[in-house]
Every structure is written in C-alpha cells, then in structure tokens.
Write a structure and sequence with these properties.
The protein is an alpha/beta fold and 876 residues long. The protein is 52% helix and 15% strand. A hairpin with a 5-residue loop joins strand 13 and strand 14. The radius of gyration is 44 Å and the shape is elongated.
Length: 876
C-alpha cells in the first residue's frame, strides 16, 4: 500500500493484543457474532488513534482465523495489520519476552499442512506445551540465538524481532543483565537481528547510550550503527487501550519490507515528526497531447529525486517547474524554450499545487500565456508565483557557470535576500532614472545659460547706440514711435503664445481621437452581451472627450477673438500716429544717426531684456537642479550602501549557521571593472593607467569623482593639461561616470580556503553547501552532482541533505545513486520516455519497485551491482 507523496511519518503500534490472549479483558468471546463486534470495534479503535500499522502479538500463540478477519476489515480502512507473536524465551531468570513480527503471507497455511507458517514456527520453538494449567505462557525450549537460527537458516522466514517492555519483568534489561547486553551490542550478527527496544525508560536509555559510546570508540564505528530503534507500543489489556501508545515511523508504503527497512535505520526513520514551517510544492499535473500527456506527480515535503536514463524527462520536468513559476533561465535559453514547447505545446496546461504560510494555492500556466495564481477557486490577479513562493532554481550547468564566473556568485546571495533586495534595486533604478532626467535638464539649461554673455554684449551695443540718440537730444522726440514698436512686439509675442497653445491642444485632441478611433469592439457571437457592455463604456468615454474638446475650442476661440480685437484697435492707433511720427522725423536735422533706427533699437533692447529675464529664470532653475542632483547623488549612494548592508547581513546569517562555508561581502569591491570603465571614458586623453588607478584609490565611485571636479579639487598628480582633459571628460561624460555602479564583490571560503584557490569540484561543492544552508524555500536543481566526486557527494552533499530533513523541500534531478540512497530520499520519481511520451513512477526508497529501479537505472542493473559488491568485499 504505497503512500502518496512518498515517505511520511505515520503512527505505528507494534505490540498489540486481542481477545485471543488470556490477559486481554473482553466481553465479546461468546460466539461468532461477538467476534465480529470485537473486530469492528478493534478497527474503529485503531482509526480513532490514527494507527496505520499494527502487529498482533499475542502471548505464545497465533489465532489465524481472528487475524484474517481483522486483516480483511483493516485493509478496507487503509490499515496494515501484521501477524506476530510475543514469545517467552528460555533466557534470563524468568524468561525473556520478544516480539516476533512477520509479513502477512506467513499467516497463510503452509502447503498440505492445514496450519499456518507461523504455527509451524511456534511448533518448532516449543516442542510441547506453550501454556501451563492456568493457561499462562510457558518459556520456549529455545533461546534467542537458536530462535534466530531457526527463522533465518532453517525456515528462511522474513522477520522483525523486538525486545518487549525492556525495563519490566521479562524485559531484556531485567532478565539478561549488562554483560550480555554489551555482548549483543558488540556482535554485528546480533544487533542486526534485534531491530528495536520497546518501552525503554530514560535512565536505562542514558546508560545504554553511554555503553554504546564506549563500545563504538573501541570498535572504531559510529554510535548510530550500534543504536537500535526505541519503540513505544500500547501492549493493551483491553479494547480502549489499543493504539493509545505508539511510535512515529517514516515510511513510503504500508508494508512489512518498508517497516523492516525503517527500523534498520532508526536515526533517520524512527522519531517524532518535525514541525514543518517551510513552503513546498505539493503536486504538479499536466494537461496536454504532447510528451507530458496526462502526467501527474506528488512531491514530498523533504527530498525528491528525479532519476532515469538520459533523455527520460528529468530536465523536462525541472524546466516545466521553472516555467510555471515564470523564472527566466540563466543559460541555454533556446534549448529550454524548445523543451517546454516540445513536451507541453499549444494549449498545454500546468497545474501546480503549492503550500505556503498555512494556505494552499494553485498556480496554473497555459503554454505561451502568463501564469495565474488561485486560492481555492478564487483567482488572485495581482499575485505572481514568484511573490507567492520564491522558488530557488538552477538548471543544468547553471551552478557550474557561477563557479567559473565569480561575478555571478553574488546572485546566489541576492536570490535569498528576496523582497528587501527587490525593493532596494527598484529604488536604485528609479533613482537612476530621476538623475538621468535631472542631468538631461541641466544640459539643456546650460546651453540656454551659455547664451548670456553674447546677449549681454549685444544689449550693451544696443544701449550704446541708443545713448547716441540721447546725446543728440532726439530720443524724446522719437519716443512715441519707439513705444508703439515696443508694444507691437509684446502683442506679437502674445499672439504667438495663443497660437502655440492652440497647436498643443489640437495635437492632443488629434492623439486622443486617433486612439479612440483605433478601438474596434467586435467580440465573437459567444460574447455579444460583453460586446454591448464594452461599447456602451467606450461611447460614454467618447462623449466625455467630445464635451471637453468643444469647451476648449470655445475657450481658445474666445481668447483668439479677444486678442484679435485688441490687435485691430492697436493697428488703428498705430496707423493714426504715422503722420505725426513722419513729421517729427522731418523736423530732426541730424546726419550722424537715422531717426528710423531708434524704434528698431528700442525693440532690440526689449528683445534682449526679455531674453535676459528668461536666462535669469534658467539660472535659478539650474541652481535648483544642481542642488537636486547632489541630493539625488547622495540618495543613490545611500541606496548602494543599503544594498550592501542587506548582503552583508545575509552573509553574517550564513556564517553564524554553520562552520564549513564563510561568506565575505566587500562594498564596491570590483575595482578592476571601475578602472576599465574610467579608461574607456578617458580614452584619447593621454592620461596613463597608473594615474587612472590613482583616481580610483582616492575616490570610491563616479559620484565622488564628479563632486571632486565640481569642488575644484587640485588633482595634484595630474599635469595641467591632464587635469584640463580629465575635468573636461568628466563633465562631458557625467551621466556615464556618475551612474556607473561599482559592484559589491563576494568571497566564499570553504573550510578556511578561498574559493578561487580550490579545484572546480571543491568550488561546486562549496556553492552547493551554500545553497542548501541559506534558506528554507524549495530548492530545485538539475544534476547538483556535476563536478563533484563521490567522496564530496557523501561527505558534503549527502550529510547536509540528512540535516535538512523536516526543514526544507529539495527537488533534484540526478544520475548519482548516493543522493537518493544515502540521502534517504522520501520520494523518488522514475522518469521514463517511451516514443516521446514521458511517464513518471513515484515511490520512496523503502518500496521494492523503487529499489529495483535505482539498481537498474543508477547502478547498471543487478548483475553490475553484485559484481561491484563482490569486488568491494574483496578489497575491504
């Protein structure tokens, strides 16, 4: 009975009794109907206590009929009931109680015997009576060693042996004594047969583990290899006690073999389930006619490994997980895009169930459309998958590329900072755009202000000529015409302003009309009601703009009429003075100047006066922009530092979590790139490399250089020509210089050694350890073992995977059997590609089917595995 999503912690009670046992108090022993009631109540009690596996271990007996009836009902409820017996052995002072548990097939009758395999075993154990005159159990005629020999070598039965109630009467610690217990610990033969101790108390456990520590040191082995499973069980004497005491065991299926496997590695499998806080992917489902047709995978919260021969679909699945989260690939973009298209294809849909912060969500993505997030059936339009659950993804060779390009390693830190980093980077981008706008405006204003000297000179020349008229005492006589010419210029400027406003509005009106004219509402016949609703909305919108346009046309028309009316009156007045002006000019008798020039000079002076007033505004605005620029520069530098602090804090967290990897973040550490950037900006200036390096020693970024230039710093290491060239280039290239962001750099140390001094494999191992320890978000990697040798995989990767149990979901595509096997993989997904159709077979490593697939796919088949084992045995 395979469990969905692979290995899970389930409640197991391996020491249970029924009313077939004398000590069990029951009122349902009278007839067949009573027995059926008892069996029903027994199963209901197991369900109530959420027991998924139990073993019926009555004293010295096995009631086949009762077991088969219980088992038949239990199977329908998804409960595994194993047959067994609690044996009294001829060991110790008063006998020793051992639980013997068997697979269900041993409850059946042996061929041609009329009784079960278990009965056959009991007959050989006792060779006579099993109970005394009071129906109390008698010790068997054999001891524990003889019993194991009988089961293993003579009968060849699969079995699980557990010392029962070890601290009570007839328990191993009461009956055998520590010398014998220590001998059992030392003997590999014995400790691999006794898989568990039931009911050990804390003081005995402390003493036992002290002995195990001592013996492990003597033998040179790990303490874990000598420590049996500590089990709790109900050992019930009445119905309501059944299943009330139990053990949590992690299993991938409800079977004898899986239970036996779990008990053989108790440190990993027999313990309280950890509290789970991390987000995780729950299930992925594909709807398509392409390669992933009708595929579905249930993920485990812990370790998931995708295995299969090359081309079987491992990378396809990894890339589809990336695709549903809308994560952009780091490399091989076309290949990965084609992979999605080939196996998902037009109309293909991915549905991914995820769990985060106590809520279940569903992410859906149809091929070539954007992903959508649902909570239940409610669509959440503004929620992106990466915001809901920021998955950490690395495709094939992505990690390898980062190992080879140190500047890319900062991404590993950045992706774990998450939302804070995104916010700061967004602020940096916004601030850079604000600075670009300011610099663009400053550039325009400087061009306008640069005309000031020329205008002042022209105005001074005009003033000098006007002064000639005043010296000749004819200025006042010509004042009438000059005033009219001055007012004419003013009126003409106003008319131009009105015309300009009218043109702006006409252009705007044209844009709006063109935009609205481009809207064609023509839904299909399937959505005519929506077509009409949308058309009504747009018609109302058009009416609004038409009303606005009409009002503005009226307003501007009135303005034009008003100005035109004044203009006509002015022209009439101007015409009326022409004779008077002509008379004045005829009466002026001078040869040095022309009376006709005076009004022109007054007009020119007015023109330059207005121009200077405009320039004064430009100068004021320029000062404001210069101040704003300095503020923005400072704010940008602060944001750079804020980003560094986020990275530095994350590095400190990493360093405090473990001792293997140390991370060092250096603020604006990429000096080489900064030097190259300055060389590019200064090319052709004949400023040498050493002096450019000197600038980067004094100033940590382009903004500091700009501030130094504008503060008239001496730059004493430059010649006069170099200084001129440097200041000139910095001013010309201010945007490229100021907005060049000097990148922070990262150094990673693996066991005290800098990454750059390690081999490629050691670097890959370091970064992989870093990825594993940084966060609790799901980590999806395609072939994490690339560039790692098997020793690194075991000493580094596998041991870290075991530490992460219960803390983080991992999904790896791999060709290395050490990862699923030694990593105690909770869910192995076997990928099979047949005629371009990919199918998946799921199961934990404690399921027989998965074990056979691992041997076949990852070890080269059973024969190759056995051959290697034979050679290794000879070597060892």
């Amino acid at each position: 009975m395979k469990l969905i999503s692979g290995s899970q912690y389930i409640r197991v009670d391996l020491h249970s009794h029924t009313q077939a046992d004398k000590e069990f108090v029951s009122q349902y022993r009278n007839n067949k109907a009573d027995r059926e009631i008892f069996i029903r109540l027994f199963i209901e009690q197991l369900k109530k206590q959420k027991i998924k596996i139990t073993a019926i271990t009555n004293h010295n007996k096995f009631d086949q009929e009762e077991f088969l009836l219980i088992n038949d009902r239990a199977e329908k409820e998804g409960i595994l009931v194993l047959p067994g017996v609690e044996l009294s052995l001829a060991e110790g002072k008063r006998g020793l109680h051992v639980l013997c548990i068997f697979p269900q097939e041993l409850a059946k009758n042996q061929n041609n015997t009329g009784y079960s395999f278990i009965e056959n075993f009991l007959a050989k154990m006792f060779n006579g009576e099993r109970f005394d005159a009071n129906n109390d159990p008698l010790p068997a005629t054999k001891g524990i060693r003889d019993m194991i020999d009988l089961l293993e070598n003579q009968l060849k039965y699969p079995f699980i042996l557990i010392f029962a109630h070890v601290d009570n009467s007839k328990g191993c610690f009461k009956e055998l004594g520590w010398p014998i217990i220590n001998q059992f610990i030392r003997e590999k033969w014995m400790r691999t047969k006794i898989l568990g101790l039931q009911g050990i108390n804390n003081s005995t456990k402390t003493k036992l583990e002290s002995e195990i520590t001592r013996i492990a040191q003597e033998l040179g082995v790990s303490e874990t290899s000598l420590t049996p499973a500590y089990l709790e069980a109900s050992d019930p004497k009445k119905l309501e006690e059944v299943g009330t005491v139990y053990t949590w065991i992690k299993l991938g299926e409800l079977s004898f073999k899986s239970l036996q496997f779990a008990l053989s590695q108790p440190a990993l499998r027999v313990k309280e389930p950890p509290q789970w806080y991390a987000p995780y992917l729950k299930k992925i489902k594909f709807t398509t006619y392409r390669g992933l047709e009708k595929s579905e995978i249930n993920f485990n919260k812990d370790l998931n490994t995708l295995i299969g021969i090359r081309g079987s679909g491992k990378s396809t699945l990894i890339e589809n997980i990336r695709y549903v989260f809308d994560i952009q690939p780091l490399d091989d973009v076309k290949y990965k895009k084609d992979l999605i298209a080939a196996h998902l294809g037009p109309g293909g849909k991915i549905e991914l169930d995820v769990f985060n912060k106590g809520q279940e969500y569903r992410i859906e993505r149809i091929f070539d459309e954007r992903p959508k997030v649902f909570k239940g059936e409610e669509y959440i339009p503004d929620l992106r998958p990466s915001d809901l659950l920021p998955l950490i993804y690395y495709g094939q060779k992505d990690l390898q590329k980062r190992v080879q390009e140190p500047r890319l390693m900062m991404d590993i830190i950045d992706q774990y900072i998450g939302e804070g980093l995104t916010t700061v980077q967004s602020e940096i981008t916004k601030k850079e755009e604000e600075i670009r706008t300011i610099l663009h405006n400053i550039k325009k204003l400087k061009k306008n202000v640069a005309r000031k000297d020329e205008i002042l000179q022209n105005k001074a020349s005009i003033e000098h000529k006007i002064a000639d008229f005043k010296r000749l005492n004819i200025a006042n006589q010509l004042k009438l015409e000059a005033n009219y010419k001055k007012d004419e210029m003013l009126l003409n400027n106003l008319k131009k302003t009105v015309e300009h406003e009218k043109k702006i509005f006409q252009d705007f009106q044209e844009q709006i009309k063109n935009t609205l004219d481009s809207v064609h509402i023509n839904f299909s016949e399937s959505n005519q009601e929506l077509n009409d609703e949308l058309a009504a909305v747009f018609n109302k919108h058009r009416e609004y703009w038409e009303e606005i346009f009409e009002k503005n046309e009226n307003i501007i028309g009135e303005l034009e009429k008003g100005v035109e009316k004044v203009d006509q009156k002015f022209r009439v007045k101007m015409e009326s003075i022409k004779e008077e002006v002509a008379k004045i000019k005829r009466e002026i008798k001078v040869d040095k100047v022309s009376p006709d020039d005076y009004s022109k000079l007054i007009q020119a002076r007015e023109h330059y006066t207005i121009a200077l007033q405009e320039i004064k505004k430009y100068e004021k605005k320029l000062e404001e922009y210069q101040r704003a620029k300095k503020e923005k520069y400072q704010q940008l530098q602060e944001l750079w530092h804020k980003l560094y602090l986020l990275r530095s804090q994350k590095a400190e967290e990493i360093n405090n979590k473990q001792d293997i990897i140390k991370v060092e973040v250096n603020y604006k550490g990429d000096k080489e790139s900064f030097i190259e950037h300055l060389r590019f900006l200064l090319q052709g200036s004949r400023i040498g490399s050493r002096k450019i390096e000197r600038v980067t020693e004094l100033y940590s970024d382009g903004i500091e250089i700009i501030n130094a230039v504008e503060s008239n710093n001496e730059f004493s290491f430059f010649t006069d020509n170099e200084k001129y060239q440097f200041i000139e280039r910095c001013s010309e290239q201010e945007e490229a210089l100021a907005l060049y962001r000097l990148q922070d750099t990262i150094r990673i140390f693996y066991k005290g050694k800098a990454l750059e001094n390690l081999s490629l494999g050691q670097r890959a191992s370091s970064l992989l350890m870093l990825l594993l320890t940084l966060d609790n978000r799901p980590l999806v990697i395609d072939q994490p073992e690339d560039d790692l040798d098997n020793q690194m995989i075991y000493d580094g990767l596998v041991k870290e995977l075991l530490k992460l149990k219960g803390k983080r979901q991992l999904i790896f595509a791999t060709h290395n059997s050490n990862i699923p096997v030694l990593g105690d993989c909770e869910q192995v997904v076997v990928c099979i590609n047949q005629e371009d159709k990919i199918r998946f077979v799921e199961g934990s490593i404690d399921t027989r089917e998965t074990q056979e697939n691992i041997v076949s796919i990852m070890e080269g088949g059973k024969d190759a595995f056995e051959k290697r084992k034979e050679i290794y045995d000879r070597w060892m």
